[in-house]
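Students often ask why inverse folding is considered easier than folding. One informal answer: many sequences map to the same fold, so there is more than one right answer. In these notes we will look at a single instance of the problem. The structure comes first.
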């Protein structure tokens, strides 16, 4: 990795700080659609029927269509913004609800709440459908490493880098560039990712809790993101970084899909 000239470094830093800050959308549109498409393929008949009834259409199609709904409503419902992530310090060993999720206002606690709402058949269908839409999105969010880990940098949004001639945040790189390195068609990508997961591995992933999944994402952020940055906020990435990390992203997308399908199959019996 070549050093950045001091004047160029300072100019880039100034421009990036003056630019509008990106929104923290985990995995970007495509990544969420991949998780939804792959999870839909693994629903039981009972879960398939209930997803179709609640969302009003063929399960894979409606799950893909609603995969980014939780991001689309954030301007109208700002109280939901903190449900997309949890800030666990990179120096921590794991998630601590009392410290990391004050008032239950984080993705870990919200997944648990949405499971309870979805499973309560006494509630109005519209409310259960909303919980389902949130689950489709938030289970993917908790598997994005930079939606669980933080180094006083807003989950990597304040880490600015240059990669292949582009200026972007580390968060954006993980949201979109790393996923798109594997392909641009969510349904085809979901098929390829799913085909690469042995059945025994898929079954093994279908366990745990949202807190445990957050811990797993935290550890990936510690080893694959923050070990590289070493506290820096502005630097260049070598050209092969995305190619090296794309398999990690694909595994996380597959884990999210396996766990989303598992949650829906358990909840929509």
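Output (designed amino acids):
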């Amino acid at each position: 990795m070549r050093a950045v000239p001091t004047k160029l470094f300072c100019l880039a830093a100034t421009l990036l700080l003056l630019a509008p800050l990106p929104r923290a959308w985990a995995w970007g549109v495509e990544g969420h659609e991949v998780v939804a498409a792959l999870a839909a393929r693994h629903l039981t008949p009972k879960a398939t029927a209930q997803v179709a009834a609640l969302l009003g259409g063929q399960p894979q199609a409606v799950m893909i269509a609603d995969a980014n709904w939780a991001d689309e409503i954030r301007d109208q419902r700002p109280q939901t913004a903190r449900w997309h992530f949890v800030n666990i310090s990179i120096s921590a060993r794991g998630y601590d609800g009392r410290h990391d999720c004050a008032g239950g206002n984080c993705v870990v606690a919200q997944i648990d709440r949405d499971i309870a709402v979805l499973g309560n058949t006494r509630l109005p269908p519209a409310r259960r459908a909303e919980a389902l839409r949130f689950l489709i999105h938030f289970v993917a969010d908790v598997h994005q490493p930079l939606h669980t880990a933080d180094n006083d940098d807003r989950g990597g949004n304040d880490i600015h880098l240059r990669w292949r001639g582009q200026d972007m945040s580390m968060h954006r790189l993980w949201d979109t560039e790393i996923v798109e390195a594997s392909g641009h068609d969510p349904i085809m990508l979901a098929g390829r990712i799913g085909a690469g997961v042995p059945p025994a591995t898929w079954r093994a992933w279908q366990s745990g809790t949202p807190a445990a999944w957050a811990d797993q994402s935290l550890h990936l952020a510690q080893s694959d993101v923050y070990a590289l940055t070493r506290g820096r906020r502005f630097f260049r990435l070598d050209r092969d970084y995305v190619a090296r990390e794309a398999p990690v992203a694909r595994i996380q997308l597959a884990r999210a899909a396996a766990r989303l399908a598992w949650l829906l199959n358990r909840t929509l019996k």
